[in-house]
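quick one, 234 residues, struct below
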Amino acid sequence: MTSLEFDALVIDVLGTLVDEPAGIRAGIRALVPSLEGAGVEELLTLWQRHVEREQRRVLDGARPYLTSDVLDLEAARLVADAVGVHDPAAVAQLARSGRRLPPWPDTVPGLDRLAQRFPLIGLSNAGRSALLQLNAHAGLRWHQALSAEDARTCKPDPAVYQLAVTVSGRSPDRLLMVAAHAWDLRGAQALGLRTAYVARPVGDPPTSSDRFDLHADGLADLADRLDRAGGPGS
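---
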């Protein structure tokens, strides 16, 4: 096997294909239209830190598994409380902003290109129903979309990446995990998947000690690199 042979691509969603902060910002602005930019960023940080903290607690066994819908609703309540909004309908509307995330400009055409050569498997910490809405809103193209909810845990738990291995029917080293988050790629790498880092403004860049198989500036660049490498469908 050459260094760049795979049978399918496994692609992260949040941050890699959709601009998660932009969608949540839009929800915060809709909740409080008069809020200035710095205030919006403070509330966005409050939301993000809550979700990250609670996912770590799930991974550590300090809290039972919760879907992304539950965590988004908790985060929305924190944000609404911080600005003195207590209307349950407004809080629920804010929580749903976690499902209305815009794709990056190269996402849809990039997925179309990649799908012509490889089976595409979406793999996300978003819950099943949230992932369905995310895919529909952003126009994402998949051959299969998998939620961490099916493993009752969160990435980077190996059980989540195992979902893609099981569905593909291939050994881990025949799958290429694509993500804008180095922590996500490390998790996939630990199970034996190959890895491709895609740079995004909101991602987690690799450190000097990371060794990923590919580095790309976006999905178009990734498609170009895979075209040059050859492989399925070429």
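The CA atoms of residues 7 and 228 lie 16 Å apart.
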